[in-house]
Amino acid sequence: MTKQTTFKAADTMAGGNISLSFGIMELVRKGFHRLRLNGFLDSFKEKGVPLGYVVELMCIHQLSGGASMNRCEEQSSSPLAREELCHGYTISRKTMERALELLDLYFEEIIAFLWKRLNEIYPDLDTDVYVDGSHVRRYGSKGENTAAGEGGGTIQLQDQFVVAQLADSELPISIEMYPGNWNDPPQYQDFIPQLMFILKEGSRIIMDAGGSDKELLDDIREKGMKYLTRIRMNASDERMIDEHPERMQYVGRGTACIAHRFEHSGKTNYLFFSVDRYMLGQTAADRRAAKLARQLTDAKDMMKEPKLSKLVTVKKNPFYDVMIKSFEVQMRLNPWLDDDLILAAKEEAGERCGWFKLQSSDWLEPSEALDVYRHRVGIEHLISSIKSVVNLKPLRVWSKSSVRGSLLLALIAQLQISMLRYDMQPEIVKKRIDGKIVRTEHKPSPKTIIENLGHWTVTLIPRDGWNVERIYSNENELTRQFSEIFKHYRGCFSGFRRSRNPLKPQLSNDPIF
């Protein structure tokens, strides 16, 4: 017995009635069935609750906004919730902790299985991949990988992770954790070789400056892969900009480029000047000017009357005295000369304002290289989704195995969202780019998807005997589109053919497995 109402997801009523996020349950269960994940996970656990059911429950809990295993156990403990959420099993916190340990123990096997299933479901996947890293702040230092590192614009206790996302489909395919005090290069040097084992030959790996280590880039080429990464500008780049302005070409969207290809290696350097980056750099001019003004005042005072106390802080100790018999201040730039003031301002500003450098292992048109690199914003959105939509942050576990298991759990949960989003038909929207109206594809964000699925609820009302009345609430146009997609997750789904109406996808019923 069903009917449509406007109950909210958080509503619970007297008499044993409960409301659950039906949309999220559908997303996870249909996704697990499509990936054949339950049976695979169950093979790693012989006794007790099947591992697939435990991971399924934890994914549903996290996507519903939860981040506590105690709370997950509590919400699934009633007979009605246990039957609906846990397939009739009692799933305790201890069982969930053991599940995280098993996810860590069989981490590589699970990643390989997910990759195999993705290629079976989507046979024509493009395997160019974005790689990026981030951190999760920790409120305590007892984690095995927790350490003080730079994150969020400050020094804080944190764990770090690196994730890989397919460039075209935006599906996450791998993730790994690292100590909080590691900088980017050693993380990339560990992560990229593992990633290359599953990529097709000729795949392109797109990275930020953390992946610009020469040894790593040479290894990528030796393995038959390609790369595109940001690297630091050097003196030869400065000369190229100063001596060959005629080689600059406009590539659109307020950006110009000087491209230089090395014939022997095939590598290409791209020196881009971006108006947007220049304007952003200029917004920091006031702060730099204020800092330079303070430094100028200090320099003039020091040149007029050098004082040791303004330069050196002597450490006090009852067991010794520090005797400084003489000191000397040498002038590098004259604070009273305009030309030297300009040099000081340039030194304080650092790298050329508005300029940045990309390097590719092979030739790409400058506009293509820029477009590919700019689409790294997709993996930044993925990281944000893993942290906030999937609720990886805050981490509530401390052992290395539990943290690593939590990362894999977050990847599995995120993959359900990303697959649904990939299967959706895009809406065609108009945007103004470089003064021209262009049509672009648009799909809802992971946050929007989960918000709509979370509001799509089922209220369970026990009746006489074993009967349960189900009242479905808050369906809308978007959830109805999701429902149509879920119908084709039962074993005969082979992807969507493009349709003119984004709300009416054309489906194929040809079996693919």
Give a brief description.
The chain is α+β, with helices and mostly antiparallel strands and 513 residues long. It has helices spanning 22-35, 37-42, 51-63, 69-75, 79-85, 93-105, 107-121, 184-196, 214-222, 235-243, 275-283, 285-304, 338-349, 366-374, 377-389, 400-423, 446-455, 477-486; strands at residues 2-5, 18-20, 129-137, 147-151, 154-166, 172-178, 204-207, 226-231, 249-252, 255-261, 268-274, 355-360, 427-433, 436-442, 457-462, 468-473, 496-497, 506-507. The strands form four sheets. Strands 3, 4, 5, 6, 7, 8, 9, 10, 11 and 12 form a ten-stranded mixed beta sheet that branches.
Q: How would you explain this protein's 3D organization?
A:
There is one protein chain. The chain is of the alpha+beta class. It is 42% helix and 20% strand. The chain is built from 18 helices and 18 strands. The chain has helices at residues 22-35, 37-42, 51-63, 69-75, 79-85, 93-105, 107-121, 184-196, 214-222, 235-243, 275-283, 285-304, 338-349, 366-374, 377-389, 400-423, 446-455, 477-486; strands at 2-5, 18-20, 129-137, 147-151, 154-166, 172-178, 204-207, 226-231, 249-252, 255-261, 268-274, 355-360, 427-433, 436-442, 457-462, 468-473, 496-497, 506-507. Helix 1 crosses helix 16, helix 1 (22-35) crosses helix 17 (446-455) and helix 3 packs across helix 16 (400-423). The protein starts with a strand and ends in a 6-residue tail after the last strand. The model is unreliable at 1-14 and 491-513 (pLDDT under 50).
